[in-house]
Amino acid sequence: MKKMIKILSLVMVFGLMSINSYSVDEIGSGSSGGEFVKVGAAGAQFLKIGVGARANALAGAYSALSGDLTSLYWNPAGIADVKRISANFSYTKWFAGFSHNYAAFALPVGESFTAALNITSLSSSNIEITTIDRPEGTGRHYTVNDMAIGFSFGGYLTNQFSFGVTAKMIKNSFASLSSSGIAFDVGTMYNTEIQGIKLGVSISNLGTEQQYTGQDLRTTAKIVSQLNMSPIDAEYIASSYSIPIIFRAGISSDLIDTEENKLTVAGEFTTSSDVKEQFALGCEYMWNKILVLRGGYRFGLDQMGFSGGLGLTYQGGGFNGAVDYSITPTTYLGLVNRVSVNVGL
């Protein structure tokens, strides 16, 4: 057990060093004029879209909370508290006709461990192709489809210390172009058993660089345009790009925990390889184990701040179920609505 804890600690340290090294490299390769901003330094941006109505109602202060399969996104160690055969389905109405979907299925392995499979996708409606000559549109369309498929395993190493690891395949595609790669998420959680205080740490998207290939990069051209020769087949080589590495550290506590009332507060610090640091605070109140009200605020974003939501839960007869809803206003892009359904047998 102690050896496993040391290994997980080393992975966390390596992840933090990776984020720092990545940021330094980007600073060195950028312009020397003005303040450096990491935005745009990574691709596969759909990996930063939060999963689940409950977590997003708390503004993403979720790395130290657990109990449902959406925790696989925030901290895979949360899967340790999923003790039943469980499934989760989440839908997000994103901006500009995009939809974000998540599905997960978990199966306990023995008394202390759980395995899970999850799928995340971001897809667009038809987007009309425009050109310089035809800015009003060509009559042709393309779509954007991003997907990540992950396998997770986690459990308790001691009565208080849990871990989780996810290996995932990532694919980005638009029009005829696509890229793919693999990545890993790792997380730990520690239950102090004092006032319900939990500590959580996770690193997401430790993986390979990706590079687009596809039909739209292929063409025919002359090697020397002045020579009287037939054009040859050629292909443009796209630059490779990194995926966003995300580090999260969170804390949660049950301020009130009685038969009829439960009040949980949570806080989280987030830093990424391509955006500035962020902080989140969230609060959740459950009445009579049926009705749940949530609210939160995220600091460090120019578009999103406040979030809120509610949920209905049911436990009994060997069945656990929950339906959650969240809403996040944005500055210029309207409202982001999320719905999640969680079942356990």
Strand content: over 45%
**DSSP helix fraction:** 10-25%
The domain count comes to 1
Strand arrangement, major sheet: 1-2-3-6-7-8-9-13-14-15-16-17-18-19
Q: Tell me, what's the shape?
A: elongated
CATH topology description: Porin
Number of E-type strands: 19
- Separation, N- and C-terminal Cα atoms: 30 Å
Question: Rounded to an integer, what's the Rg over CA atoms?
Answer: 22 Å
Mean pLDDT: 88
Question: Which CATH class applies here?
Answer: Mainly Beta
**Element order: H for helix, E for strand:** HHHEEEEEEEEEEEEEEEEEEE
- Profile the largest sheet: 14 strands, antiparallel, barrel
* Number of H- or I-type helical stretches: 3
The CATH architecture assignment turns out to be Beta Barrel
Low-confidence stretches: 13-18, 20-34
Q: Label the structural class.
A: mainly beta
